[in-house]
Amino acid sequence: MKHISIMVFSPFGNTLKVGKYIQKALTESNQHCEIINLTGKSWNQISSFDYSMIEKNDLIVIGTPVYAWKIIEPIKIFIENLPSNENYRIAFFTTYGLITGYTLFQGVNLLEKKGYKVLSCLKVAARHSMIFNEEEDPYNYRPNQQDIEIIQIFSELITKTLNSFPNRTLSLEKLDYHSWKVKYLYKFLIKRFGMALLPKIYFNSKKCIQCGKCIEACPIQIIKLDPYPKKFGKCIKCYNCMWTCPQKAVYSRTFKLFEFFHRILGKYYHEIPETKIYQ
Ligand SMILES: Cc1cc2nc3c(=O)[nH]c(=O)nc-3n(C[C@H](O)[C@H](O)[C@H](O)COP(=O)(O)O)c2cc1C
After folding, report:
1. Ligand 1 atom nearest residue 15's Cα
2. Which of 105, 107, 144 is nearest to 274 (CA)?
3. Number of domains within the chain
4. Of 274, 277, 241, 279, which Cα lies nearest the Cα of 97?
5. Ligand 1 pocket: which residues have CB below 6 Å?
6. CA 254, 178, 112, 18 torsion: positive or negative?
7. Which atom of ligand 1 is nearest to the CA of 237?
8. In terms of DSSP bridges, do strands 117-125 and 89-96 run parallel, antiparallel, or are they unpaired?
């Protein structure tokens, strides 16, 4: 029996859902598998994560949503702080709602630089957690049954590789799958400014009834009442506080404009909405 931990950060729940499918498949094949959910932990708690909890594991599965074509910041910090160790085996996955960009490449690159052996990667088509009002969006009802079957194959594959070829590592070349037009947009715009271009969140104290729902919804615990909600720390821009507020007191001035640009960008820069294994 192998000991496996699945680490996720999942503001909207897609990545956690995929983590649970992987856990189910691994448990059914008699592996000991636990989920460590970093969602809801503060920046401080993530930076001071106790890595001794996972050092004896045979495999660590890491799951991240795509944010502006990259790994979400808390998972990036988790990976950057992982102690270097040539014996660690990793499987890496992402959930995405339009284009994975350099998420898989970035994650595997960071991990391999630390000496980790990345056995396999997976991208899972999922509902977009920012723009999700369009019924015709091909990602809207994902992951579907077919996606779940691929997630199960991925789970079987990582245990097989762990048993038979524990020293194999995924080639980075396989994850550099984008066309030149994606590469250039990433290099000159999204890599540096992607997150900064996303709309900012504001609080309207006149509409606020201090119910605290935005505080509960924040997956990185940066909102506090002072006496009205205020951000204390770096916002990951998941917009959970905005969707949750019953008074519409949490708002963004540029969200509609961003939605418009996002739709145009989506037309030219989308991926085939597929769930795919890289090994
Ligand atoms: C701020 C923000 C940025 C996002 N950027 C991207 C992106 O660049 N590409 C993409 O395919 N999906 C993007 N998404 C969609 C999420 O990656 C996708 O819905 C993911 O499954 C959400 O995972 P979660 O449910 O675990 O939070 C973004 C979502 C948010 C909120």
Report:
1. 26
2. 144
3. 2
4. 274
5. 10-15, 65-69, 95-99, 101, 126-130, 198, 237-239
6. positive
7. 1
8. parallel
Instruction: Identify the CATH number of the domain in which residue 84 sits.
Output: 3.40.50.360
Residues 123, 234 within the same domain: no
Average pLDDT, the chain: 94
Shared domain for 11 and 91, answered yes or no, is: yes
CA 163 to ligand 1 centroid distance, Å: 33
In a domain, 36, yes or no: yes
Structure tokens at 36: 């460590």
Give the number of the atom of ligand 1 that is nearest the alpha carbon of residue 99.
Answer: 11
Give yes or no: residues 158 and 220 share one domain: no
Structure confidence at residue 267 as a pLDDT band (50, 70, 90):
confident
Residue to mutate (ligand 1; options 98, 200, 255; most atoms within 8 A of CB): 98
Q: Is residue 188 one of the residues assigned to a domain?
A: no
Is 192 exposed, middle or buried, given 0-12, 13-18 or 19+ CB atoms closer than 10 A? exposed
User: Closest residue (by CA) to atom 6 of ligand 1?
Assistant: 67
What residue numbers bound the domain in which 235 lies? 200-253
Over residues 145-167, the mean pLDDT reads 95
For residue range 232-258, list pLDDT tens digits in order: 999 999 999 999 999 999 999 999 899
Q: Same structural domain for residues 46 and 167?
A: yes
Please give the model's pTM, rounded to 2 decimal places: 0.96
Sign (positive or negative) of CA dihedral 126, 129, 130, 135: positive
Q: Give me the CATH number covering residue 229.
A: 3.30.70.20
For residue 73 the two structure tokens come to 């910041």
For residues 164 and 237, state if they share a domain.
Answer: no
CA 191 / ligand 1 centre spacing (Å): 15
Confidence of residue 172 (pLDDT cuts 50, 70, 90): very high
Q: What is the pLDDT of residues 13-66, one digit of tens each?
A: 999 999 999 999 999 999 999 999 999 999 999 999 999 999 889 999 999 999
With cut-offs at 50, 70 and 90, classify the pLDDT of residue 132. Answer: low
